[in-house]
């Protein structure tokens, strides 16, 4: 197991093609500084660990990805968009989305905890301040935040991290709205990390890690698109999504 030095002047990771455990763990330890997180994502590595545990860095094989042009939207979800009960924004309330994603997902002891601890929240808020982490918000008719997601954008790749919902289908609709906007902006790859039925229903598929890393390299080599999120000086407005 590769042990990271939190005091090293230049954050480095081993090549995940050769250094990961069977579970996909590439390294352990280090810190969640901006430079280290950027380097990790550029190498197809992400942090995922429980509170009071050392930081674990992952690059699973296979990797779940979604190509924006292959997004699948179910008939029921298209109907939900047409009802117009929700509106969507980008980067209007990043901290609120982070707090929503950190909420317990159930009532059992196993589901009451969350991997998204205070250290992780602070780290991604720093990435957001650097213009690298972004959120999508779903709002109801009363202006309440009822769902959303956040992730990291580098090159033409978007690394989805977590999502939450407080009303039926809010996170699903936020995800669809995000992927559609990313595709329109020129993004080529949405990293979904590990398999779940929830994401597979949208057309996400597993590919070998080596293929993922090769595609990621191509996404990072080209010009970076502007992205759908607001830029300095832009007004932040609500918009409805759908297809």
Automatic annotation (TrEMBL):
<dbReference type="InterPro" id="IPR004616">
    <property type="entry name" value="Leu/Phe-tRNA_Trfase"/>
</dbReference>
<dbReference type="Pfam" id="PF03588">
    <property type="entry name" value="Leu_Phe_trans"/>
</dbReference>
<dbReference type="InterPro" id="IPR042203">
    <property type="entry name" value="Leu/Phe-tRNA_Trfase_C"/>
</dbReference>
<dbReference type="GO" id="GO:0030163">
    <property type="term" value="P:protein catabolic process"/>
</dbReference>
<comment type="similarity">
    <text>Belongs to the L/F-transferase family.</text>
</comment>
<keyword id="KW-0012">Acyltransferase</keyword>
<feature type="region of interest" description="Disordered">
    <location>
        <begin position="223"/>
        <end position="243"/>
    </location>
</feature>
<dbReference type="GO" id="GO:0005737">
    <property type="term" value="C:cytoplasm"/>
</dbReference>
<comment type="function">
    <text>Functions in the N-end rule pathway of protein degradation where it conjugates Leu, Phe and, less efficiently, Met from aminoacyl-tRNAs to the N-termini of proteins containing an N-terminal arginine or lysine.</text>
</comment>
<dbReference type="GO" id="GO:0008914">
    <property type="term" value="F:leucyl-tRNA--protein transferase activity"/>
</dbReference>
<keyword id="KW-0963">Cytoplasm</keyword>
<dbReference type="InterPro" id="IPR042221">
    <property type="entry name" value="Leu/Phe-tRNA_Trfase_N"/>
</dbReference>
<protein>
    <recommendedName>
        <fullName>Leucyl/phenylalanyl-tRNA--protein transferase</fullName>
        <ecNumber>2.3.2.6</ecNumber>
    </recommendedName>
</protein>
<keyword id="KW-0808">Transferase</keyword>
<dbReference type="InterPro" id="IPR016181">
    <property type="entry name" value="Acyl_CoA_acyltransferase"/>
</dbReference>
């Amino acid at each position: 197991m590769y042990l990271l030095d939190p005091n090293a002047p230049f954050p480095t990771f081993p090549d995940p093609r050769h250094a990961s455990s069977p579970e996909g763990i590439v390294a352990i330890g280090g810190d969640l500084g901006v430079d280290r997180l950027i380097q990790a994502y550029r190498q197809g590595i992400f942090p995922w660990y429980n509170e009071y545990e050392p930081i674990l860095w992952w690059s699973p094989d296979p990797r779940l990805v979604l190509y924006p042009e292959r997004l699948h939207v179910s008939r029921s979800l298209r109907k939900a968009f047409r009802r117009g009960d929700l509106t969507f924004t980008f980067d209007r309330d990043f901290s609120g989305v982070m707090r929503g994603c950190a909420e317990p997902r159930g009532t059992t002891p196993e589901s009451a905890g969350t991997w998204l601890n205070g250290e992780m929240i602070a780290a991604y808020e720093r990435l957001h301040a650097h213009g690298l982490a972004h959120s999508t918000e779903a709002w109801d008719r009363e202006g309440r935040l009822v769902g959303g997601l956040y992730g990291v954008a580098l090159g033409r790749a978007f690394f989805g991290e977590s999502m939450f919902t407080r009303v039926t289908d809010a996170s699903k609709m936020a995800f669809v709205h995000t992927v559609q906007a990313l595709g329109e902006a020129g993004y080529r790859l949405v990293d979904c990390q590990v398999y779940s039925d929830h994401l597979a229903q949208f057309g996400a598929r597993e590919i070998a890690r080596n293929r993922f890393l090769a595609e990621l390299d191509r996404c990072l080599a080209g010009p970076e698109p502007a992205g759908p999120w607001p830029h300095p000086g832009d007004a932040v407005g609500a918009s409805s999504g759908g297809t």
